[in-house]
Amino acid sequence: MHRQNSIDKHIYTIVKVFIGLFAIIFINLAYIQIYQAEDLLKDSHNSHVAEKALQVQRGKILDRNGVVLADTTVEKDGFKRVYPYGEIFASPIGYVSDKLGYAGIESTQNTYLAGNNLVLHALGPISQIFEQNVGNDVHLTLNADYQQAAYDALGNRKGAVVVLNRKTGEVLAMVSRPMFNPNTIDEDWDNLRVDENSPLLNRASQGLYPPGSVIKPMIGDGVLTSGVATTDTVVNCTGALQLSGGYSLSDSSGEVHGGVNLAKAIEESCNSYFGTMGIRLGSDGLKETFSRFGYDQELDTDFINNKPQLPDFDNLSDGEFAQVGIGQSTLLVTPLRMAMLAGSIGNEGIMMKPFVVNAITAPDNSILEQHQPMTWRQVSSPETINIIYEDMKNVINHGTGTRAKVSGIEMIGKTGTAENSTGKDHAWFIGCANMPNEDIAFAVIVENSGFGGSEAAPIIKNILTSILAKEGK
């Protein structure tokens, strides 16, 4: 009897061990299914996904009006990815390569394009792969007409253009030059990756630049919101702001503006005024202003973008505060963020979250996902931001941005000439336009080209004129 009890105890112990092992395996499998399945499907290094992608006719990428931007053709030896517009849409769309993997929308939406659909089951958020021979289509917010117009207007100059619907956050155009041709990415790769002009970089959302004077409207909002000055406060501009230690902050070409209030300072882009206000705002005022507009935060959206780089506000001298006030110091921003800034000024202080994917449809045209506009933040009060709006309207009508003006279109704008430590100044232009079919916001940067009013502003005029011609307006 004693021996039988001992055997029973051993059997019981073995059973407990096996039950424990099965429990551990089950828990691990459940964790992977529930928490890691989507990440594994999206991982370009996942061998199952990579192998399956080669067996599937990849879905199309289309613009907002159904224009095909990326397609797959059937060849004798398999499938071939084709980009009808070549490099024109390469910055947002990216590429697919058997050798190099994926980039851009081709990467972020690979799960859907390759036909791997994630669904929810009655048991809970358990993801499962439903395999199909044809991938899903990705419909973008991009407008082929805006993209083509922006590409043509920028020409062979190095820089970027971003156009947003400021009411919804939809990205209508995202152009970066120079750029690669996704149709020949494999053949061109060795040259592209060592090209000092960085054609693989999407300057529109990833390029970091000193903003220069295009930051001044936001500084103006900070001045009014904090109360360090009013719309009637006057600064005497003598052509240079004298700073401690014998330093001075000069206006463009030493221009003397005389008595300057906020409206005149924005219209004429007076450095002495905004340098003074940078000092008055100081660490707390500048931190609060940049934070309200989201410059200290990551932007979580459906395409890759870089966070702005801010100075260490707690350790700046008065001279450095003045530099921040005119968009210099160590401040770096992306064209995307500057278009968002302009959009918030044209949208009563509401900054929309930008997005480029509008919908996902299955091969049977059923809608798998439909993306909706989202407010990212309220950056300022409508009353304060509308003051800045009117001041920026003057920039277009009789200030530094007259070369952007399009007859019959209400516009606001701000020019910028950003000092560049490695070469000639960068030219900026940001603003809004009330087009017949959309209320847009935009940002243009042309690297190493000089003044924003003469180099960047005309690019916007050319884009808008082209769109109006296409729409028969």
Can you put this structure into words, describing what you see?
This protein has 473 residues and is α+β, with helices and mostly antiparallel strands. It has a domain at 206-355 and 373-470: 3-Layer(aba) Sandwich (Beta-lactamase). It is built from 16 helices and 19 strands. The protein has helices at 2-42, 47-53, 90-93, 105-108, 110-113, 144-154, 185-192, 203-206, 216-226, 262-268, 271-292, 318-325, 335-345, 382-398, 452-455, 457-470; strands spanning 61-62, 68-75, 78-82, 95-97, 101-103, 137-140, 159-165, 171-177, 235-237, 240-242, 248-250, 258-260, 350-352, 357-361, 367-370, 375-378, 411-418, 426-434, 439-446. Strand 14 (357-361) and strand 15 form a beta hairpin. The longest helix is centred in the first third of the chain and has 41 residues, at 2-42. The chain is globular, with a radius of gyration of 27 Å. Mean pLDDT is 90; it is low at 44-50 and 118-130.
